[in-house]
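Sample entry (471 residues):
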Amino acid sequence: MTSDLQSVITELESLLTVGTGRRPGLSFASLKRTVEVHPFDPGDLDKPTPAPRWDQFAPRPPGAFGRLLGGAARYEQEEAAARQKYEHRRTQYAATEVDRLRRLDMRRNAYDQKVSETAAEVQRYNTEVEEFERDIYSGDSDAVAQFFTLVLDASPYPDGFPHQTRAIYRPEAKELVVEYELPAQTVIPSKRHYRYVQTRDEIDSVERSIKEIKDRYARVVAQLALRMLHEVFTADPETIIEVATFNGHVSTKDRATGQPIRPCLISVSATRERFSTLVLTDLDPVACLKHLNALVSPHPYDLEAVRPVVDFEALLSQYKFVEGMDVVASMDSRSDLLKMTPTEFEHLVRHLFEAMGMKSWVTQASKDDGVDAVAVNEDPVFGGLCIIQAKRYSKAVGIESVRALAGVMEDKHATKGILITTSWVGKDSRDFATRHGRIQLIECEEVKYLCKEHLGLDVLISLPKPPPSRH
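Predicted structure, serialized as tokens:
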């Protein structure tokens, strides 16, 4: 238990060094998709059945003694009957072959059409990415704000850190203003360590001092500010940003009134030139903020607010802001899941499964507007590693997706696999999942139910046609 507490503290103390040690995980190349299709599967249609042979039907000729007893006449009758059966079977075989080749041709045409449609969709999407890139390089304020919001949202943080950002780009000043939701003070463990008391045969916890908690929280806030400024300047594709401003807020309740408040605990602005002189791996974050003339709450743990260097709310009358991915909070009561962006869908799926008890969520976008995720179910009996594949489809999910999930489960030694889709799966997929025993299929109607049950969201899935009946 003590080692777990120390691991949390170590993780919090290394926020800045970890952030500066990685390149931003977002690039225009990573946003693009490639055409990936499975090889054509003819099933058994590419294998003709053996043609009937005469020797399979021909009667056995009579011997010499048989001919003396009238066997020759009987043989001629049997041969004639066998010949008739043989010709009938040949006719059947020819018809069967014609039908096989027809079905093989239909299957090939359907495959070619799917490949063509997939390639066209990928091309359309990649064209939009290229247009997005051109808009950024031209200094379009909306595109620049959206790009850096994606960059900051893609940055990994410990559990308990919200991923809520808003960004505004001021092209005339080449300034990016970022408003970020800070973690609550409870991110600092209140326990320092545990000790065994032999006389009582009990384990006691030793509380962390209030001063230490306040100091550590102040360091977390300082590291976050510097890390985000670093990520902005590092991810800048062509020095679009000359000035970066960070405002850190925390959502909480006023201890005196119980009313919700969102004080600004830190506000710092830096030019690219000045920030480039900092050696982030060797400095003290709190001292560095003083060097940058940041406005920092003298008592951030006590929620003492400061006035931001740049007032984000005041800029809203001049610029359009781009908000990060707190999807659940921003969805209205009838949001259409099929109209969400892939990133929005990823965050919704994460929120849903976290509400259902999953932990240690790690995702990567799949090639088909879906999500591939690895999560941990902490249930002591039924828990373990869980592979989750989410498909934002408007048509049926093929059995190849279910088989692929089984393969990933085997590779990662997962105890369970879940395929969740906005559409439906066919009977073959359900039969496969039943035989496998550790795969759960969640289709459109159950998705809507789970969103309502666990997130309080009454969502819409506007499928072009109703899912087929299971009966």
